[in-house]
Amino acid sequence: MKKFVLPNLYFGGDYTPEHFPREVMLEDMRLMKKAGVNIVTINVFSWAQLQPNEDTWTFEWLDDIMDTLAKNGIFADLGTATASTPAWMAKKYPEILPVDANGIRYNHGSRQTFNPNSPKYRELSHILVRTIAERYQKHPALAMWHVNNELSQLVNYDYSEITARKFRDWCKDRFGTCENMNRKWGLHFWGNNIYEWDELMPPMKTAHQVNTSLLLDWKRFTNECYMEVAREEIKILREITPDIPITTNFLYEFKMLDYFAWADLIDFISVSSFPDPKITNHPGEAALSHDIMRGLKDQPFVLLEQAPSQVNWRLANVNKKPGVMRLWSHQGMAHGSDSFLFFQWRASVHGSEKFHSAMVPHIGENSRVFREMCQFGNELPGLKEVVGADVQAEVAIVMDYNNWWTVEFTPGPTALLDYLQMLKDYHYPLFEQNITTDIVPCDRDLNRYKVVIAPLLYMVKPGFKESVEKFVSEGGTFITTFFSGAVNEFDEVFEGGYPGPLSDLMGLKVEEFEAMKPYVNNSLVMNGTLEELTGEFESRLWCDILQLGTAQPLAVYGSDFFKGTPALTVNEFGKGKAYYVATMPEHGFLRNFLKKVCADQGVSPVVEAPDNVEAVVRSKDGEPFLFVMNHNYEAVEVTLPEGTYIDLLTQEKLTGTISMESVQSVILKKV
Amino acid sequence: MKKFVLPNLYFGGDYTPEHFPREVMLEDMRLMKKAGVNIVTINVFSWAQLQPNEDTWTFEWLDDIMDTLAKNGIFADLGTATASTPAWMAKKYPEILPVDANGIRYNHGSRQTFNPNSPKYRELSHILVRTIAERYQKHPALAMWHVNNELSQLVNYDYSEITARKFRDWCKDRFGTCENMNRKWGLHFWGNNIYEWDELMPPMKTAHQVNTSLLLDWKRFTNECYMEVAREEIKILREITPDIPITTNFLYEFKMLDYFAWADLIDFISVSSFPDPKITNHPGEAALSHDIMRGLKDQPFVLLEQAPSQVNWRLANVNKKPGVMRLWSHQGMAHGSDSFLFFQWRASVHGSEKFHSAMVPHIGENSRVFREMCQFGNELPGLKEVVGADVQAEVAIVMDYNNWWTVEFTPGPTALLDYLQMLKDYHYPLFEQNITTDIVPCDRDLNRYKVVIAPLLYMVKPGFKESVEKFVSEGGTFITTFFSGAVNEFDEVFEGGYPGPLSDLMGLKVEEFEAMKPYVNNSLVMNGTLEELTGEFESRLWCDILQLGTAQPLAVYGSDFFKGTPALTVNEFGKGKAYYVATMPEHGFLRNFLKKVCADQGVSPVVEAPDNVEAVVRSKDGEPFLFVMNHNYEAVEVTLPEGTYIDLLTQEKLTGTISMESVQSVILKKV
Amino acid sequence: MKKFVLPNLYFGGDYTPEHFPREVMLEDMRLMKKAGVNIVTINVFSWAQLQPNEDTWTFEWLDDIMDTLAKNGIFADLGTATASTPAWMAKKYPEILPVDANGIRYNHGSRQTFNPNSPKYRELSHILVRTIAERYQKHPALAMWHVNNELSQLVNYDYSEITARKFRDWCKDRFGTCENMNRKWGLHFWGNNIYEWDELMPPMKTAHQVNTSLLLDWKRFTNECYMEVAREEIKILREITPDIPITTNFLYEFKMLDYFAWADLIDFISVSSFPDPKITNHPGEAALSHDIMRGLKDQPFVLLEQAPSQVNWRLANVNKKPGVMRLWSHQGMAHGSDSFLFFQWRASVHGSEKFHSAMVPHIGENSRVFREMCQFGNELPGLKEVVGADVQAEVAIVMDYNNWWTVEFTPGPTALLDYLQMLKDYHYPLFEQNITTDIVPCDRDLNRYKVVIAPLLYMVKPGFKESVEKFVSEGGTFITTFFSGAVNEFDEVFEGGYPGPLSDLMGLKVEEFEAMKPYVNNSLVMNGTLEELTGEFESRLWCDILQLGTAQPLAVYGSDFFKGTPALTVNEFGKGKAYYVATMPEHGFLRNFLKKVCADQGVSPVVEAPDNVEAVVRSKDGEPFLFVMNHNYEAVEVTLPEGTYIDLLTQEKLTGTISMESVQSVILKKV
User: CA distances (Å), C56 to each of C43, C45, C59, in order?
Assistant: First the structure.
């Protein structure tokens, strides 16, 4: 993938001056300059304002905004305005409205209420995108395109007849014949065989569970439908403005779309990032989000939406405490974000989000939140040289959206499986020890890493076996867990015992599994092979009962009828090692186990620091930038690695042990 | 508002003799006389019995009931029978059936299953009401009209195309142009602008949240539709029986209707009152309900439905223990109820409510419940002179249904906001200290009170600023809380900081707010200005962070980053004071704080009594009636205010300290 | 009822070789022989495979399976394949799809998605059943017919217009006139009277509760509709294969169907039995299920589906520990099961149930689960002589599905009533003491028992009063509880006080009842009359407040206003006694109380054994078989009744005290 580097270190927010009297926009220009804002996202939801009916266009207000921005030296992340359809369209063309699994049609009245497969939605949105692109292609304010918005988030699936027909065609393309599809999906189960394509139904309301392979392909299909929506907008934009970079904003915590598949579509990844600012929040959550976003293209990305302070959609919404907005933005940069935009510039006075925080709150300029924005924005230019630098990681965690989908669609063995939580369970222990992690898809080259972890890899796709066997045989360390290697890419079980194609590598087979009730534990009793890790550790959620081939046990279960049988194993494979974790160990165990496994491969922490002090290195042209971030709400002492550093924001020289205030961050360059 | 006084102190219940063999009715007459019953509510749900098809009327059975009642000296609260539509109507005119937000039409088979806006429902119900009114206009049993029943309770909204069209017309009347509506509602947010009226949709199923101003006006519109249903029935009744008083029964604990707007429609307010008789229930709950009902017209009202013992619709339904039915009825009278009816006279043997208690239980006359009814009914005439007396209150709490609706529709800042609970939070501490409270709407004259409290007054309507500023400047004390003065009557935020129009009066602005997670606390640390209140008190739910103007701090926060900033303030304004409570303090604090504020204004308890002993004064022509009610399930001693009293029920003379049995009440007149 | 005895002691499982390559079937034959399998259930869901479109039949694959089975000496429990409709049928005849209470039609895509009343479904399913029956009528593999599958479980009700019309006809047949129905159902309540049959609606979405008598008859009607589905299939089968026994599988824990009404339809009862194998599960749960199934025809039955180890549909699914599958199968036999089939033979690789356990797991033959199956299957022939033996019980519990339905449909007095739990509450204490219990319907002859218990007999049907009065007057002991005798078979309350027709027998009336809040207790204070039971015992859920006639109190309440009034009574009636338990006592009380009541009647435990050791006797031709089962997960000592026994599985001779391993069972014959 060609590396894309932003031409600028952008700072700004979502902006809707058209919701206010015009004089407010002029006041905004003053405040933006005061805060150091150099970009705003506009035009995301304004289709109805641009096109009050099918035959009328009203671009004057948008021209005015673009011109005002340009006059004030501020760039636009220009939305394609396709994220919210006008009311007249729903009335004139009801087909643009999505349909739910009960067959009930949605109504106009919110946002994203469109059927992604409606030909009329496509046609009208293309006219809109082309019109906007042609109008502003040469405009000096135009910095980047913002395609649609958080696609599929609110309409996860459409079940209209339009989409059903398209799904049938998609399946026909994929399988050729009904018979082949019946076989690959196992539709003979419960006699759901199809003999004519028009017998195939999307997974709508029916008496009991729908075939899991169908659900998986329905999800893949829907992902592709939404990709098509984006691709077609992008095609128009590239034709008219080949040099303007294009993005669309992702959301890390949901599984609706396969973002790895999306990565090639756009020039750079951007994300809406809203961790809960309650003080008990784990700082690894944002780190994991950032690592995923960076991993999608294996490149820097952009934090396109953060909250200046609180959001409005949690049960109860707490503020970002003083300094946290700055700390979390710096954390974003440490993990690869090269620009910082916030939702929203000015607090709205109408609608659903009027109590979502804004860079300019309802009370206005004289406010903590705006003051912090000014500080952050004005010191940001000092970090410009970091833009484009690479994050340094020797450990990778495999993440696969198809796997996420299907392992959670499957009825049983336990509804307590949570793939994202499993990723966190393996990511956080590394994060806490300042071992930086890349997130990689199944088909990425693993050989640049020293340690690769694939938690809960239920689905093993073609090619992964070969890739990971090569990686281990050449000296890498691989870790996988229970309920891995169970099914292929069609959700067909590998017969003969899990982990199926990974059995040779892991040196074992799973004879049976036990899904544990909530609050029931088992334990790992270490057998002394790993000197660093002795004693007994709690485990929960699941126990695989193993038949070992070439694998050696490192721990056995402490209870239940399989007490004394292997719970953790290692298999020597070529020059490397493959570990199998057959249950879900307690957090403390994983911290020490992963530390040991990393140390064996020569992977060590970026900085040995107190709890909740994070350290990450980005480097560019061989020059490292050291980010040190104190996530504690109290001051700590941190000993820097040997050398003398310059603080990019203060130009101060630092060496040895430094004092860090509560939620302080420093970004250092070695001198 | 002209004062209406009932001609009688009524006692009775809901009555459906047509569900039993005729001989049971004759037995009922004997039992009613034994119990002292002088009124029954009849004909509420009997449309289908009166009109078996569109062309046939069968009034004979109702004539028989009316005649039998008259012959036995019992009056009728005569229902208009419009609360339940006949099955033939649903079949013949499906338009009378309501439609839900998914577009799914309801079916016949329960009660209240009608579309309030159906022209056919209106037409047929008017024929029915006119027929009944004409038939019984001169009937000696006719004492009052009971219009429909608990309107809107079961069909909160109708989303039929009939109603959608009406809503569009309503909006057109309200806003004149789409553009004006777009602007006032802020429909530009998420691009939901409307350019033609028929583009406007009721808030039906859509992909995400609907505009909050639209929701508010949709609620107002629906309230008006139901008012129209009642008004049209009333118009017919007034035309035919101008001298017969009219009511319809309300429910205090729901926010479906704006009862202040309804108050003028009817001659007197009546209510269905069903507090949970579990012994842990707070006796303030019923008191608040009664205070609201009295406040609607600022006049006495009627307890039109109480349960003789248990209801049947809670998770588990406990009995009213011996004496509680009498105690709670006397409590109702203390707060303004001038008659007492129960649901239901005789336990039904069919249908949904057969295990709801009745004055005559399934076992019949030989039962505790019936014996208690006889005692209560036979002593009731002793209280006749109380009818029409006014409740004495110097403190008022502002209640506003529009505010209730919109503060709970708003997504964020926290879903934990509960307006009714906030009213309780301020009402109960006063109740517990025997400081009687009126409940008043925003537009009532405040100057007759010494203390006015407006909890969570999120919406400030035009005129309230002037009214409350006048009240305070002339010497009154005003208290409001966090998240007040945030929006105007269109749900548009007041820019420049909350509490918006109340900022001058309160002498402060809100810089930011923090919605607290469940189980997270902050505290108020008193700064010594209020001598009576020192120390630290827990607070929860919310913290406003304030910028003080002329206000003086009385307490500061005890923790979080805004520790030490004001949490409770007072502002001298003219001759009065305005207090701002920026967080939700613990109950004990509010008790003491409100006591102190009242004492400063010379407002003192009716009686200083032990816990859970309530005292209220009603007075008529200068003569006070003192109600003392022991809500404890054990005996207590109560010291009466100076003087000698006569117990209206026993004619005993009382003075000084009296003993009160468990759940005993006394109603006293000074001699 | 004529007694049916299976010709064989069958062992096997659900089998779908058509989902695998043909060579797997040949391997299966080897494994089945190894395990001792002699029957498989096939063809349950394979309609779509047999009939790919309306004009085409493809029986070759099923011929092959049947022939292969026959060749290998394995019998077929042959499904009629009507449990899952083909996709083409839904497309061609949408009427076969059921409709929900909102009027939304289901879609094809799962199983059991058919409208039981669709004439087209009936027609096509009859063609199918006839075709299968004619084809295999003489086939040597055919051992029994498996009609449809777990009928109604997934489509509890159909609300299509087809069914609505049929329901109207059913009501017309039942009531003759609308007026009669109005009266019996009490449709005058809330004015829901019907004057023409087509005004009657099934209980679809409406504004509030639907008439409870209508709900009850709607349930009865639906039960009959599903019976009709089965009866029509059975009629065809009996016509073509008069000598082949017929069954269909039931599910004990649901109340969808009235299985007592079904019992006559089929030759023997079979059941899908899936107790949760977590170690805290009460072994009485399976015992109750088995006792119900045996009680349906008062004959042995068949465990047609058990799980070899875990299922896949609980929140988290644990394994059957080693030995438990065998223990639970032996428990099934102890209670009357004469054959043992498992779901499923070979673990599927597709669809919803791929992580449900199988006799042959994914890993294959070399597995604990398969080894246990081999052990169990190979020792099973030793138990052949038990087949057809009767279970010996002197105590009966009355169970009535109509009662179950209606007591839980009724709004109030408390939603905490759970009829099945009440049956358990009275069954488990007997089970724990090895007092074997029959489950009987209301209309079975009670006089063969010594003690009859009817918990929560809300509905008393015609004839029961006479039956139970005869039983008691002749010396029997009867026990019933609170909220019994409240309504008749139309759900009409018996006026004059519960327990209505049982009042004479019980010698009391219920004056009022108190439904208790969760976590609130009262108590029974014994008055000394029962010497064995003194002291105070907790009670919960409900308290009836009684007026005693001839009954004598045994215990009084310990608290609340009815403290000191009777909570437990006995009435001498003829030669027998009738006990009334007016509240829900704690488990320990019921254990001792039931023990005492049984002892008074000379009913004693089969074996006095340690906790969780179960003993049951079946006998044939006067010869008893003693089943002793250790449900503990540890070894115990058990003292056998006097005599010498032979262990049918080991041929070992046993006498006196024996050691039983964890989860061990022995089946003994006296020598």
Answer: 17, 17, 10
Chains that touch B (3 or more CB pairs under 8 A): A, C
Beta strands, E only, B549-630: 552-557, 566-573, 576-581, 583-585, 613-620, 623-630
Testing the interface with B: which of C199, C483, C541, C546 to mutate, by most B Cβ within 10 A?
C199
pLDDT of residue C484: 98
- Please state the three-class secondary structure of C546-578 as a single string: EEECCCEEEEEECCCCCCCCEEEEEEEECCEEE
Q: Is the pLDDT of residue C2 over 90?
A: no
pTM for the predicted model, two decimal places? 0.97
- Chain B neighbors of C411, CB-CB under 8 A: 312-313, 352-353, 355
Whether residue A462 has a cis bond before it, omega within 30° of 0 = no
What is the ipTM, given to two decimal places? 0.96
- State the catalytic residue, choosing from A150, A233, A285, A469: A150
Residue A241: predicted pLDDT: 98
Is B313 annotated for ligand binding?
Answer: yes
Q: Which residues in chain B are closer than 8 Å to A28, comparing Cβ atoms? A: none
Q: Kindly report the CA angle at A577 between A575 and A578, in degrees rounded to 5? A: 140
Q: What pLDDT digit, counting tens, does each position of B272-295 carry?
A: 999 999 999 999 999 999 999 999
pLDDT of residue A471: 98
**DSSP assignment letter at B155:** -
Q: Which residues of A touch C357 (CB under 8 A)?
A: 512
Cα(C671)–Cα(B424) distance, integer angstroms: 78
Partners of C638 in the β-ladder: C658
Q: How far does B45 lie from chain A, in Å, by closest CA?
A: 34
> Could you tell me which of A534, A577, A541, A573 has the C-alpha nearest to residue A556?
A534
The arrangement of strands across the sheet holding A653-660 comes to A390-391, A613-620, A623-630, A665-670, A636-647, A653-660
Q: Which residue positions of A form the known binding site? A: 111, 149, 313
Tell me which residues of C are annotated as active site.
150, 305
Cα–Cα distance, A78 to A84 (Å, whole number): 15
- Which residues from B are below 8 Å from C203, CB to CB? 109
Q: Is B111 annotated as a binding residue?
A: yes
| Helices and strands (H, E) in chain A, number of each type | 17, 26
* CB contact residues (below 8 A), chain A span 513-542, against chain C: 514-518
Contact C514/B81, CB-based, under 8 Å?
A: no
Name the helix (H) or strand (E) containing B145.
strand B142-146
CB contact under 8 A, A412 and C321: no
C-beta atoms surrounding C651 within 10 Å: 8
Domains of chain B: 11-155+221-379 (3.20.20.80), 395-600 (3.40.50.880), 613-670 (2.60.40.1180)
Look at C88 and A185 and tell me if their CB atoms are within 8 Å: no
C116-166 pLDDT, tens digit per residue, is 999 999 999 999 999 999 999 999 999 999 999 999 999 999 999 999 999
Residues of chain A with C-beta less than 8 angstroms from the C-beta of B190: 45, 84, 110-111, 351-352
CB of B190 within 8 Å of any CB in chain A? yes
Task: Estimate the share of chain B in helix, then strand, then coil, as percent rounded to the nearest 5.
Answer: 35, 25, 45
Model confidence at A249, in pLDDT bands (50, 70, 90)?
very high
Dihedral sign for Cα C133, C138, C140, C144, please.
positive
* Stretches in chain B below the pLDDT threshold 50: none
C5-19 pLDDT tens trace: 999 999 999 999 999
Instruction: For residue B292, give the nearest of B454, B448, B423, B404 by alpha carbon.
Output: B423
Spacing of C-alpha A404 from chain mean position: 13
Contact across the interface for A512 and C18, Cβ inside 8 Å: no
Tell me, yes or no, if C189 comes closer than 8 A to chain B by beta carbon: yes
Q: From the candidates A95, A285, A305, A432, give the one annotated as an active-site residue.
A: A305
Residues 6+ apart with CB under 8 A from A102: A204, A205, B102, C102, C104
